[in-house]
């Protein structure tokens, strides 16, 4: 077994860990650091349950080798908010019933959190170019339901709470536009 020492900042806290070079970020988070909010769904990068951010970019942690992000900042669902203070997205998921079984919720919220940052910086999606140009907000494409669905397409909800998830994200995006 070949181990390598890496240094990461996880949810604002510096961490130095000796890990097997074959370890995924997901396994590091769950098994070594006991941050179990990030879920292992398909373990093939297809469902989005393990979505976290690395240096403010969404990644599926089940396909990300931990050694490949040495020196990076990682944010998990535990870093977004918790019982002492929910993030607006977490509150919106509760208010709009954006989950049923809850298994995908941490990945959905982590992905939506990053997606709202991507939108704020002006990133476009494939839907941004469909049909007539949607209204813009401060020079950006408005987050219509279709925009949100496209931008969240990598996150699967087996219970089918998609409409409520879109409503929750839309509510927060609306608050950010105001």
From TrEMBL:
Record domain 2Fe-2S ferredoxin-type: where: 4-80
Alphabetized InterPro entries for the sequence: 2Fe-2S-bd, 2Fe-2S-bd_dom_sf, 2Fe-2S_ferredoxin-like_sf, 2Fe-2S_ferredoxin-type, 2Fe2S_fd_BS, Aldehyde_Oxdr_Iron-Sulfur, Beta-grasp_dom_sf
A Pfam family assignment: Fer2_2
Keyword Transmembrane: no
Keywords: Iron, Metal-binding, Oxidoreductase
Keyword Endoplasmic reticulum included in the entry's annotation: no
Protein's UniProt name: 2Fe-2S iron-sulfur cluster binding domain-containing protein
Organism this protein belongs to: Mycolicibacterium komossense
